[in-house]
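cache lookup: miss for this entity combination. No prior model stored, computing from scratch. Input as submitted by user K.M.:
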Amino acid sequence: MAFLEISDLRKSFGPLNVVQNFDLAVERGEFVSFLGPSGCGKTTTLRMVAGFEQPSAGAIRINGLEVTGLRPNQRNVGMVFQSYALFPNMTVAENVGFGLKVAKRPAAEIRARVEEMLELIKLPTLAGRYPYQLSGGQQQRVALARAIAIKPQVLLLDEPLSALDAKIRVSLREEIKTVQRELGITTIYVTHDQEEALSMSDRIVVMNEGRVEQIGTPFEVYNYPRTRFVASFVGTLNILRARVIDAARGQITIDDQAIVARRGIADAKVDEIRLVALRPEAVSLADPGGERNRMRGTIEDVSFLGSVMRIRVRFSDNAISLDTFNNPGLAPPQRGQEVTVGFAHEDVLVLEGAEAS
Amino acid sequence: MKRSKLGPWLAIAIGAIYFLVPLIGTFEFSLRMRRGEYSFDAYRIVLADPQFQATFTYSTCLALATIVVGVLLVVPTAYWIQLRLPRLRPVVEFITLLPLVIPAIVLVFGYLRIYNSSSPLPMTSSDRATDVLLTFGYVTLALPYMYRAVDNGLRAIDVRTLTEAAESLGASWPTILFRVIFPNVRTAVLSGAFLTFAIVIGEFTMASLLDRPAFGPYLQLIGANRAYEPSALAIIAFIVTWGCMGLIQVFGSGARLASDTR
């Protein structure tokens, strides 16, 4: 039996179904992300696990015990909020020790645990400071320490890094993951940033409009997206319109150029219009030669993103984005240049569902 | 440049004169007790008067009781409204504004009707019970100010998220109220408290009609029977009120920095 079991969870506000048929089994010590756009129900689901929302139907079990009817202060879950939510009237040490003080632990124990936690988040010198004297990143680390200090069964994080700037986000991401791995706490992390989800999680739950689209490891979700939504939400993706010529041999045409596809084509019918997904990193800006797909087109746009250059190549109706590493020794390609792009047969994924919605 | 500044300065000057001249006149008059020279005799007489000390002490005690009851009533209410019942906010706001509309004398008359000696709850028959009545009357009078101050204070902090954070750490409602909410609205509560104090010290109608030895009726008594002492009393009352306002400023803006030295 899994450590955290969410069974057939449902939540509606009046006629609006915010979360539908949510099923998830989380192992002890696992780091699971809920990934999705705003309004997809991920935060609502997290709040139901925490106890701040009551589900309309379904059950939540932590370590075998049914917690669905329990109040948040009876569930022993730690929560980290987007707005940090540190108590302004208490010092860092008092904040971190708050949960233990509420549980009436002896003062010596509280002091020791607070010290331990501050060491863990690498802020031992800030024990006497007040929240308003700390930066955003420091406040969030204190919030994390506060949530962990009570040794919660499950750690819940609600978009904790959204309010921070990019550099802090990256470093804090690693810190959270390190702490979580060290302590082995079962964790649920809600985010709309797929980079965060991909880099931190053991598994990702991709959600859209209250429904679970796919559950899998970052590798699975990125490389083998099961639905069009997952394919387009996780990672930048090229979506092309293709016509099926011969399903058995995997032959399709994109803008009248012959292409061979190996994945997702088995159930296609002749002359059907299907959407095709192609990752930018699978495309190279050179004639591949031999048994690989090639297409001729014109460079429409070149974006310099620092370490990577993103080039968009246009065919007649479709366009492909591809990435090349920045090379200061090479002149960047020019707009209007005629180029050939290449990609393998296996990189072309024919998506379920025919017409674009 | 000079032209645009003339108007505002003129308005300030006129307002200042309007308020300051009577004050200066009163002060000057209060110094005239000893014939022929300025002295603080009137103040000395007033401050030495045992009646003054007794009534001032009485009103101060009542003010403290009013503040405690008011805070215990208003803070949880404002908190609950913000957190759980935002739809009731207009209703509660209307209720807290009623004391501004209903005159104190009407309140007292109502009291006397309900609690007089021939009713099932004859609170006016005993001194202590009447003190209790007076306290609750004062709580009602101070309600608009206390509620507004606390409500503003609560709005400045993210009540919902703080409550949820505390709850997720295992805190129950009383713990949240007293360890998280109260400390963070302390400045708002203090400014409400000082306003209440200023109101109670000077209140006349209720204290007089309920026949209690408060400072307001004492002021009126002195004013009706003496010449110089009332002016001295008026100045003293002003100083007390200004002291309260000053303390509101100190606690209002200084709280953030004050916590630095804790």
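stored under new cache key. Chain B has one domain: 53-252.
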